[in-house]
Amino acid sequence: MKLKFLGTGTSQGVPVIGCTCEVCTSENSKDKRFRSSVMITTEESRKILIDCGPDFREQMLLNHENNVDIALLTHEHNDHVIGLDDMRPLIFKSGKNMPLYCNSRVGQEIKKRFPYAFADERYPGAPAFDLHEIENKPFHVLDTEITPIEVTHYKIMVLGYKFKNLAYITDANFISDTEKEKLQNLDVLVLNCIRKFDPHPAHFVLPDVIALFKELKPKKLFLTHISHHLGLHDIEDKDLPEGMHLAYDGLEIEF
C-alpha cells in the first residue's frame, strides 16, 4: 500500500495570505503546503481519500490523481471537508454516489453544509454522497481493514485511521492511553504538529510530538498539519530526532 501527502498545511495553508515571514516567502516547494489530506492506494490500486479540504481540486490535478473510490473524514472543520463539492467530476464519471465514511456527528454536519447533495430531487450538476456511519471499531471496505483512532481536538473527538502498520492522525492535542494501545510499535505514524514551541489548545506542538515518538516508538514518524510557525523545511527537518521527518506535499511512502 502507499500513502501520498496531498497537503500538509494547517487551515490557513502555507504561505499564509499577506504574510512575509521567511517560510511564507520561501521559494522551496517543500515550504508550500496545501490543507492537510492524504491519498491511500491499496494493494488492488483502489483509492481512499482522507479528508477533502478547499485545495482538493488542485491537489488532484497536481498529483495526477483521477479517481477516489471512498473518502474517510476525520472531522467536520472546513479545512477538512469543504472541498467535497469538487468531487462532482468523479461522481459524474463513475455514475455512482461518492461513499463518505465518518462518525454520526460529522455526517450531520455534511448534510447541513451540502443539503443539495442529499435532496430527493437534485438539480442537474449537483454532487451525490452516500454517508456510512462508523464507530470506534475496525471495519472493512475495498478489501482493506481500517481501524479508527479516537483523539481529542480541543473539545471535539476526531478520528485518525490505521491501515496495516501505519496510522494517520491530524488535528489532535490529546490521545488517551486506550487509543495509544493501537499505536504501539508502528512502522509509520503520521501526526499533526502545528508549530515549534508555544503550546496550542487544539494541536500538538513539537515537544508533544517528540514525547509521543519516544513513548510509542514507531519506526518512522512524519509530521503534518504544519504551520509557517514551525520553520523552514530543510532546516527543521535535519534537526529532528532520527526517525522523525517533516512531511511535505507530494511525498509518497510505501507501507
UniProtKB/TrEMBL annotation:
Q: What is the lineage of its organism?
A: Bacteria, Pseudomonadati, Bacteroidota, Flavobacteriia, Flavobacteriales
Keywords for the protein's UniProt record, in alphabetical order: Hydrolase
Q: Does the keyword Chaperone apply?
A: no
Task: Output the Gene3D superfamilies linked to this UniProt entry.
Answer: Ribonuclease Z/Hydroxyacylglutathione hydrolase-like
Annotated GO MF terms: hydrolase activity
What Pfam family is a match, any one? Lactamase_B_2
Q: Where is the Metallo-beta-lactamase domain?
A: 46-226
Q: What is this protein called?
A: MBL fold metallo-hydrolase
The record, for InterPro entries, names:
Metallo-B-lactamas, RibonucZ/Hydroxyglut_hydro
